[in-house]
Structure formats: C-alpha cells, structure tokens
Amino acid sequence: MSGISLAVASRSDPDHGAEQQPSSAMLGGVMGSLRVIELQLVAFIMVFSMSGLVPLIDLAFPVFTTLYLLALSRLAFPSLHHKLDDENAAAHSAASQEIFRGSKLFQVYVVLGTTVGLFLPLAHVLGGFARGDDAAVRSATPHLFLLSCQILTENIIGSLGVFSPPLRALVPLLYTVRRVFVIVDWVYDVWTNKLITRTAPVQDKAWIWFGRYLAVANLVYFSINLFVFLIPKFLPRAFERYFHTRDEVYAKTAEDKRARDMSSVDDDDDDGAAKSNVSKKAD
Fold this sequence. Notes:
The chain is an all-alpha fold. The chain is built from eight helices and no strands. The chain is elongated, with a radius of gyration of 27 Å.
C-alpha cells in the first residue's frame, strides 16, 4: 500500500538452504492469500464503481495510469533482466523485489498506514451505510476506491516480476498524488458541510468528530508518505537500482562485442597462417 507492499524487503537469505524450505512450503498458502486479497479488492472496486459515489475523473484515473505505465514499460523503462545471463538475471530479479529495506520502525509505520488508510475508512463507510449518512459515505468512498486500485496494481506488478523498479515505484507515487487531492476534498467536506448542532445526540457528535479526525489523519499520513518517503527515498532508490542494472548490461554487451572481435581476429590470423603453409608446401 502506497509503495509499502513493494518496499518491504524479503527477510529470506538465499545462502541458507534450511531456511528456504519452510518458505517454499508456505509459498502456496501465501499466494493463495494474495489471490483472495486481490479478489476482495476487485469486489470493492466493482461495488464502488457501480455505486455512483465515485466521480468520473477518479474512475478514469486507474485506466489512464495503467495505460501510461504500460507505455513507459515499453518505451522508457523496459525490464533489463532478459538481457543478462541466467545467473545474473535471477540475482537481479530477486534484488529488485526489495527496493527499500525497512526496519522495525518502518513496519510499525506500515501497520499504522494500513489501519488509518484502509481499515478505519472502510469501517467509516460501512457505518455510514448503517446510519444512513450518505454524506459520510460519499466523502470517503473515492479515497477507498483509488486505494483499492492502487493495492491491486501493486500486487499484480509485484507478483509478475517483469516490470522494472522505476515502474513499480511510480505506481504508489501516482496514486498517492491523486489521493492527496481527493483527501483534501474529503477534509473540506467533513469540516465545512457537516455541522454539529447543540441539540444533537452524543452519538451523532462522536460520529461527526470521528469522520473529521479520520480525514485529517489520512491527509497527514499520506502527505508524509509522499513528501518524506516516496519522493526523497523510494523513487531515487528505484532509479538507482535500474540504472545500475542498465550499466551492467551495457558493460556486458561491450565485453561480449570485444570478445567476438578478438575471436574474429584470431580466426583471420589462423586462416592466414594456414594459407601461408599451403603456399609454402606448393612451392
């Protein structure tokens, strides 16, 4: 989520075979869980799209983003793993999955973002349906729709393993930029259009204040995520890894070309020597 699912590094060590066997045994269960999560995200996206609560521009944004990323994967940042030999390609493929290695504090940051950005807004929307608060549902739904599309895109790109690190970093960056503007509208709506009267019950006041603080918390969290993590740390690390791999590809190509040239020169020398020996024998 917001680059977090792509940023957390794998903790497995390829040099320890004993540790790899339990990981391999658990792989099927993990992949099955991912498939379930993706199906749930698709269900959320379909429900939000059909509900009429998401503006047209937000419905079109995932389509535009997907087409743009596919164009970049072909024209600007193609995958370089196929240009390396099998051993180096496997090593770079494994390394590219961990663009940013997070600490224990970063994992706490991940859990906090998941709670503030996904679970609490989803509970807020469901509570709005139960209370008949259409305004609360309409305010929070665009954020949840875009976040669901973002997580689904990150999971698909991460599981395929054929996209370069810059593209994997651009997914959370583009979505987070758009969602910050959506959250700003959410904050403005709940703080200006939701008025609290003195005669309102305590439950209604608590509900309104919960929605207000939740919107502000999302704005603060994802603004920090964008300007403190994604732009200054995550995106440069992805480009650095990509261009390092590209330099290795260029070096390998130049080395192979020099080897072919040297081989052709040696073949020409051998042919010349053979012809000279033949002419001497004829004389």
